[in-house]
Amino acid sequence: MSILEDIITKNSERVAKYASETHTINLHNTAVFTNNTNNNPFRLIAEIKRASPSKGMIDENVDVVAQAKRYEALGASAISVLCEPYYFKGDFADLIAIRKAVKLPLLCKDFVTTSAHLLKAKSAGANIVLLIVAALSPEKLQSLYHFARELALDVLVEVHDENELEQALLLNPQMIGINNRSLKTFAVDLATTKRLKILIPDNITVISESGMLSPADILEIKAVGVDGVLIGEGMMRQADVLKEVF
Q1: Residue 54 carries which DSSP code?
Q2: Shortest CA distance to 167 belongs to which of 188, 136, 204?
Q3: How far apart are CA 70 and CA 239, in angstroms?
Q4: Is 28 exposed, middle or buried (0-12, 13-18, 19+ CB in 10 A)?
Q5: Burial class of 196 by CB neighbour count within 10 A (0 to 12, 13 to 18, 19+)
Q6: Whole-model pTM?
């Protein structure tokens, strides 16, 4: 079983409970990331996460609201909030609290596999959701993508290789995330972004994800021509240093 399969299996009981919950939602998206109203040519999605399967504990006691306000003050274009509890030590309570504290678009970073999960994310205050191609059948990917758009959510469709990118492009998506980390092995290779970026039409917003721990890493990815980056561990450990690149 791959790490991704293990994560999805571990979370299946948690996710199943969302189907019986009542969610209050507003179909208006008050912070649309894909609009890029600030005309920032290179955008930062700064991530809040306490831990990860590859790095272990990063900051168990982080004040997520204070961290979100810090990212907002540093000029981030959006904030990614981990909501997966077992491997990343996240919680939907974090997303709810951060939504009350900042005005930036919020990405619900979770392993979404059901429509009820999307409703949960929307009701908690997400403006953007992550759909991981490797975690979903083509049919499920299509249905969840279109349901998310009906909920007025921006969708970051995540890919790691050419086959996944082919599936993602069938959606005619507004935004694609290229994950430099394999979710099967958790190995990281920044060349993944370079390899896949040239295969994506110019009208699609491209975000590079994972593995950027230094200003040099970010500049290397920026040179590829992506529209932005999503950085987790690096921002948690040295946000002030990395922000100088933007």
Answers
A1: T
A2: 136
A3: 9
A4: exposed
A5: buried
A6: 0.95
Tens-digit pLDDT string for the chain (246 aa):
798 999 999 999 999 999 999 988 887 777 778 776 566 789 999 999 999 998 899 999 999 999 999 999 999 999 999 999 999 999 999 999 999 999 999 999 999 999 999 999 999 999 999 999 999 999 999 999 999 999 999 999 999 999 999 999 999 999 999 999 998 888 999 999 999 999 999 999 999 999 999 999 999 999 999 999 999 999 999 998 888 887
- For residue 17, which amino acid is it? K
What tokens were used for 21? Answer: 């919950």
- Which amino acid type is present at position 150? E
CB 151 within 8 A of CB 25: yes
CB of 235 closer than 8 Å to CB of 198: no
Q: Are 218 and 212 in contact (CB under 8 A)?
A: yes
- For 44, counting Cβ atoms within 10 Å of its Cβ (0-12 exposed, 13-18 middle, 19+ buried), the class is buried
The gap from C-alpha 235 to its chain's centroid, in whole angstroms, comes to: 14
In terms of Cβ atoms closer than 10 Å to its own Cβ (0-12, 13-18, 19+), residue 111 is: buried
Asked if 47 contacts 187 with a C-beta cutoff of 8 angstroms, the reply is: no
Query: Could you tell me which of 6, 23, 80 has the C-alpha nearest to residue 47?
Result: 80
At 128, give phi and psi (nearest 5°): -130, 140
